[in-house]
Amino acid sequence: MKKLLAALLLLALTLSLTTTALADRSYIFPESSTRRLTWAEVDEWDYESLGFAFHEILARHGFVFNPTGRYYAYFNSKPWYTPNADSNNDRACYPRLSGLEWDNIELIKSVRASKEYNDYGRSIWDSWTGGITPLSGFTYMEFRPNQALPVYAAPGTSSYRATNGLAEVSTNGAIYVAGVENGWMLILYETNWGAARVGYIDTRRLSGSVPACRQLNFSRTPARLVTACTITDDPITHGSTITCLPAGTSVTYLTTFYGDQAWDYVEFRVYGQLARGFIPSGLLDMTDDGPTLLY
Questions:
Q1: Model's pTM, two decimal places?
Q2: Strand 273-280 vs strand 241-245: parallel, antiparallel, or unpaired?
């Protein structure tokens, strides 16, 4: 019995530490509401990041951001952020801040002002984005942690799903988002074995607030392959093949993304299922005047 209690206590402690670590990763300054920051630690961050840092203190108290502003999507992607029902920040947010928090805001603003014409330091975009470099058009976003979501190669649960139908993404890792199509979010993420994958998740399965992002508007141009080629869902490390298609196969061109090279994003069918993937640009014969680029 004692061994069982010890094991349960160890498990509870492990879960608590894991949760704390995930929460801390969601903040630029995790303790900015409980202790006085120093100039030296604030000075480690660059000008842009410090703009997010002092708004982070406000966001803890439900500050309501302008939907057209630069901070709206970032904070709405945070699992800890809940905007106040009252959008009047003078009334609903500012009175909640402590004197310590106001002091930290003023410190961050002062350090930020000193960097306006001589910017240097760490960037928030480099701190939590995993070990892959995203394609053009994909933006890093955070979701409520501890979710495991099925990933499909095209929108819809009847579409092809990699890893023998088991492909999924954990919201504890870095996720990049290109946009949403009919409730399905196009994401790029790093797999457990270090490869990358592009696919779709159903936004209706997400817990917490769904990050605001653009609506996808693909070209949908009929095309044929001018040569046999491999189609991948991993244009970052080139690590996984969906299928190989022969020359002359009809596909639908969607758009072109850019990474270490230009990649055409196409729709096709594999094993009777709808799928989307990447081929190097230049392998398509368009049946109209040419592609319309999304990015």
A1: 0.59
A2: unpaired
For the chain, domain boundaries: 21-126, 128-205, 221-286
Spell out the per-residue pLDDT of the chain, length 295, in tens. 544 444 434 334 333 333 333 344 578 899 999 999 999 999 999 888 899 899 999 999 999 998 767 787 678 767 788 999 999 999 999 999 999 999 999 999 999 999 887 778 887 765 445 567 788 889 888 888 889 999 999 999 999 999 889 999 998 888 999 999 999 999 999 887 678 999 999 999 998 777 778 899 999 999 999 999 999 999 987 668 899 999 999 999 999 999 888 999 999 999 899 999 999 999 999 865 444 444 3
Nearest to 31 by CA among 63, 53, 64: 53
**CATH pick for 128-205 out of 3.40.1350, 3.90.550, 2.30.30, 1.10.730:** 2.30.30
Token pair of 127 as six digits? 């701190």
Helices (H) and strands (E) in the chain, counts: 8, 13
**Of 266, 249, 265, the residue nearest 257 (C-alpha):** 265
CB 151 within 8 A of CB 163: no
Do the domains spanning 128-205 and 221-286 agree at the CATH topology level?
yes
| CATH hierarchy code of domain 221-286 | 2.30.30.40
**Edge-first strand listing for the sheet containing 184-190:** 139-141, 175-181, 184-190, 196-202
H helix intervals, the chain: 2-25, 39-42, 47-59, 72-76, 89-92, 99-114, 124-127, 162-165
Q: What is the amino acid identity at position 67?
A: P
